[in-house]
Amino acid sequence: MSTLIQEVRQRGERLFERHGIPHTRLEHWKYTDIRRAIEPWLAEKADVSPGSGYEALPTDDVAFQGIDGLDAYRIRVLDGRVIEIPEALPEGVIVQPLARLLADDEARAARILNADEQASLFNGLVALNTARAQDGVVITVEAGIELARPILIQHMGHAQAAHICHALELGAQAHAMVIEHYETPEQTAGFTNVVSRVQLGSGSSLVHVRLQQESSARMHIGRLDVCQQRDSLLKSHVITLGAQTSRLDLVVNLNEAGASCELNGLYLTAGRQHADHHTVIEHRAPYCRSREEYRGILDGRSRAVFNGRVVVHEGAVGTDSEQRNANLLLSDRAEIDTKPELEIYNDDVRCAHGATVGQLDEAQLFYMKARGLDDSQARELLTFAFADEVLVRLDVSAVRRHIERLSFDKLPYAGDFDAMSLGLEESA
Amino acid sequence: MLEIKNLHAEVDGREILKGIDLRIGTGEVHAIMGPNGSGKSTLSNVLAGREGYEVTAGTIMYKGRNLLDLSPEERVWEGVFLAFQYPVEIPGVNNAYLLRAGVNAKRRHLGLPELDAMDFMQLVREKAQLVELDPSFLSRGVNEGFSGGEKKRNEIFQMAVLEPSLAILDETDSGLDIDALKIVAKGVNKLRSPERSMIMVTHYQRLLDYVRPDVVHVLADGRILKSGGPELAQELDRRGYDWVREEAAA
User: Is this prediction's ipTM beyond 0.90?
Assistant: First the structure.
């Protein structure tokens, strides 16, 4: 291994040693205690030697589910290793396994892997990712390229730790849609630690979907870092359905004037699941716009955390920011901790935020019963409608329907998604 | 069709209905008029089975069955329909789906085959014309962004689709301008039939100019103080309600 990569790895180890596993005395980890559950997955000493990226891994015992009806460029990642990349890609679109870059272009690989001090402070596992990530997908969309089909990155894993590092770079005026899909076989434990670093060139636009439906025995820790240049546009959809404990840090840097982001989120938790979403939007330049709406539906004894931080820096005049978080509690033993955090360092801004926690509306339920729906049907429909309000913003119908179906099926009712969605389709 | 005897009902522990007696024959249209706070909406909600409206005494027999034994949705399946005074907005639940789910639940209950998507759409397009609703509203959220008039027209439209035996129109005329009132009234008149009974709960007589009732009742202080023909409505409009109270007290 080259000295450069070695240095980056060692720096990651040192940072991880300094900051350690996040603990509940840290302000941003107050409600999420991962220490005990994560312990077994850290002992494992991962093999970080660069491979070809196409090692023959056992795939016969896992089945990638995919998304029905979606025509996409498909990439497959198993246990943190890229095992399949698309054979034919349009000109100007490059997809490489990080493992290959580690061997071929170490300067770039080092840049992609490198954790910054700030991120490590927020979450020490980012530094661990730098130290241990074996592989990941590096996607480059060159300036002016408009990708007509989405890129789908499917993740699957056995009961082990997977440290994955993805990078996505869009050149000026490029347009793409990328779906990160995480699933693991039901009942399987394991630990996913994934960092995705995204750079959006000026005037580019990205639709990013992050669908996490890992086994309810698994731990999933994710970070999505986005840096946006002038007039770029990010539309993000985060859907969290799976994992026993999950944590996502989504950090968007609006670095240049006119950049804008729309962050949509949905988390559905049940049983004893714990889902924590921390988002940070840094308004660092004038006339940037951010819109954020996260919704949660909590059942059983599950717990969710939403922390939405918006920082408007000095000089970021003309900032326009709105944030909402709405939660529906289906059980009186479920718990949500929600907190907006606004830091504003100039006067010329428009910022709004709000958080709600509630149950289903009795007047709406009665109205539906007065039209002939039974109690369970009325509740199901209202609950689904609550979730669907954030899902309808997803423009690719195959993906939206897939997620709607998963969400519907996760709700604690017996209804049939097809019967319901027929009603949606035919009247549309 | 409907026989109410000595009905007493409470909301939040406060007695609102204090002994209502009312008998509505098949195909009859009755108007229930009264001042604010007389118990009109309480009666509508009790008939529809809303939670929080507690019947403390009396009986309601509907088609020979005890209505109070039925859940709100069972009442719908058996042919009772409430057109709401204030229809709620339900963003994200589309009109067509809600209605199809309701119609098919009723059909299942009656042992009829469910309507498939095509039959259903044909039915609703036809019924939408009754109240001059643009069928595109079907794909919108229930009452979402509807004007006051559109909401009331939607109520009558839903009534047309669900084809009830007993329709309760709770202040259907409130909040309507004269054009919307005419459209709604026209829809209601088209739905009158010898098999269908209606209760029109209203504060003012103006709806009754367009939908002529067979019987008019005056509800005040939780009791029916006076009943009469359509001319009673005009008298109430002219003289107000106080004389009925005085007459009843005498």
Answer: yes
